[in-house]
Task: structure prediction
Amino acid sequence: MTYNDWFEAHAKKHAKIMKKLEGLDEYDIVQYFIFENMVEKEPDFCELYATNTKCHEMYELNCYMCGCPHFKFYQSPLIEDELEFHSTCSINSKRGKRAYTDNQVHQDCSGCNIPHDEDYILRNFDHDWLEMMKKVKN
Result:
C-alpha cells in the first residue's frame, strides 16, 4: 500500500467515526479515540487492533491524530511501474529515524509519540482529519 492509498483510506475511516460522534465536544471526542476504547469499539480502524498491539509504546496512546501532521511524504513515478517513495519528519524529531532502500527513504516514527498525546491533540484539534493533515502530502 502506498502512502497516498493509506492516507485516503484512513481519512474515510476517521470521517466515518466523526459522523458517529457528532454532538460530542472536543474533549469527549478525543477520549473516544483512546487506544483501548478504539480496540473495543472500532476494530477496523487500525490493523494493529486485531492483535491489541500499540504502534507506539506509551501509557495513554490516543489514536485521534494517527498519521502525524509532521510526517511529509512524496511519491513520484520512476521507470514504468516503479515508484520512488520518500518521507521525512518536518520537525526532525529526535525520536524518529530513517530507513533507506534502493529507491525509497522512509521516515520511521515508531519511537515518537508527539501526535498521540492528548494535550497535543487538543491544541491542534480539528473535526476534519484532512484539515489537520493538510501539509502532509507534497
